[in-house]
Amino acid sequence: MADLKVSGNLTVAGLKKRFKETFGCSLRVYTTPACKALAKDDATLASIRAEGAKGGELTVGGNLRVGNFEKKMQEVFGIYVQVSTPDDSKLAKNEITLTAAGKE
Fold it and tell me: Which of 6, 80, 84, 87 could connect to 30 by a Cys-Cys bridge, CB 3.0–4.6 Å?
């Protein structure tokens, strides 16, 4: 099972592409806590993070649950994400793993 490394200098498009390649599911990246405004693909994670977020690096495995991944991205990077099905038609359930979300 592959791991995904995430760092602040990664672009939104790069994160979404690597996420899809690693886990098979789609990722939506937002600029607001209410998940209303999608982040631009050419923005870096560091440029869209919430004020006071520490940044750094995060390594994510496929056995991590969707809800925990979304929470970790907010805690580490101060960005808001939602995992969705491979075709990006609906959000993945928070209780399943990232690998399982890629098979929905």
Answer: 80
Q: Please tell me the distance from the alpha carbon of residue 33 to that of residue 49, in angstroms, as a whole number.
A: 11
3 state DSSP class of 82? strand
pLDDT tens sequence across 9-61: 999 999 999 999 999 999 999 988 877 889 999 999 989 988 777 778 999 99
Please check whether residue 104 is in contact with residue 66, taking contact to mean a CB–CB distance below 8 angstroms: no
Residue 8, number of CB atoms within 10 A of its CB:
20
Q: Are 85 and 78 in contact (CB under 8 A)?
A: no
Two structure tokens written together for 66: 């969707």
**Cα gap 68→40, rounded to integer Å:** 24
Residues in contact with 46: Cβ distance below 8 Å, sequence separation at least 6, in sequence order: 8, 9, 55, 77
pTM of the prediction? 0.92
Look up residue 96 and give its amino acid. I
- The token pair that represents 34 in the structure block: 């209410």
